[in-house]
Amino acid sequence: MALGALPDYPWESMAPYAARAKQHADGIVDLSIGSPVDETPPIIREALSAATDAHAYPQTVGTPELRRAIVEWFERRRGVVGTGLSERNVLPTIGSKELVALLPLMLGVGEGDVVVHPRAAYPTYAIGAAIAGAEAFASDDPAEWPAATKLVWLNSPGNPDGRVLDLDELRAAQARARELDAVIVSDECYAELGWDAPWSTEPVPSILDPRVSGEDRRGTLAVYSLSKQSNMAGYRAAFIAGCGLLIERLTTVRKHAGLMVPAPLQAAMTVALGDDAHVAHQKELYRARRDVLRPALEAAGFRIDRSEAGLYLWATEGRDAWDSIDRLAELGILAGPGHFYGEHHPQHVRFSLTATDERIEAAARRLAASVA
Questions:
Q1: How far apart are CA 369 and CA 300, in angstroms?
Q2: Number of C-alpha atoms within 13 angstroms, CB side, residue 225?
Q3: What is the predicted pLDDT for the residue at 10?
C-alpha cells in the first residue's frame, strides 16, 4: 500500500452512532475509544509544573534521571532483573502511537518486506507497515510467519482482546523471529492491568523477562506507555527498551527528525515511574468498573472472550458487529466494532473501561432494561 493510499481514519464512521447515542435522555455512555477519564495524579502534575522553565532543547535520549527511572521500573514492575538492562537500552518517545506507526520506517523495513501483527490488532501496526511500503500480515502462529518477515509485533495484554502471552508463547515468538532474522517488538502498554488468574496475582510477563530472553536482547524490543497506568494520555509519554543496537539506530533517526519528548514531560515521566501507589489506585478503579460492566453485558446476551487483562472487554452476541453497535447506540452506549481491529473478528465489539463510575453504572442499567 502506497502512502497516498492510506485508508480513512476508521473512527470517523462512528459519527452517526455517536449522534444517536447522544440523543438518549440520560446522555451518552462512551465506551469506544479508551481515553482516560480520571485525573492525572497530583504528584505528576506538580512535577510537570516545577519543570516548566525549559529554555534549552531536551535530550532525545532522555535525561539521566528518566533513563534510570525506566530501567528501575523494568526491574521493579516487570521482573527484568539480572539481564544487564541499562540506560543505553532505553529511549523515551512522544507517546506510543507515533512509535508504532513509524517504527518500521525507522528500522529500514520497506518494499518486499513483511510486518507481522496479531489477528485481533490495534490498526496502527498495519498502518506502520503501509507507511514504510511493506506488507502487513496478521497471524498469531509463529509457524505461519513468512520468510520475508522483517518485523514482528506482539501485543500483550492485547488491544482489543485482552489476550496475555505467557512465557512459552513469548519464547516461541522470539525464537521464530530470530530464525527469520526479524526484529520482534512487544507492545506491553496494558501490562499493569491483569484481571483473571493467573494475572490477577502474577505480573504479566515482558518479552525482556530473563525467563524469555536471558541476557540476550538481540533484535528484541518492548514498548510501554504511561497513558493507562498514570492517566497521562494527554502528556504523550511512552518509551521503548531492549536491544542496544536497535535503540542506538532509533536514537540517531529521532535526533535527525527532531523527535524529542519535551523536558517538562520527561520530569513528569520520571516521577510517574517512581510511584507505584497511584498505579495501584487506578487499577482498582478499573477493576470496580469491570466488575459492574462485565456481568451486565453477559446478562444482555454478550459472550466475553479473552479479556483476561487490559483496558477492554472483547464481546460478541453472535451477529455482525455493526448490528451490535446499532443496538447499543439505541441504548445510548457507544462501543468499537471488531471490524476496526482486522478482518478476523467481524462479530466482536470492544468495550472500554474508561468511563466514570456513574457512566458505567448507567450502561449496566440500560443493558439490564433492554432484556427485562
A1: 9
A2: 28
A3: 81
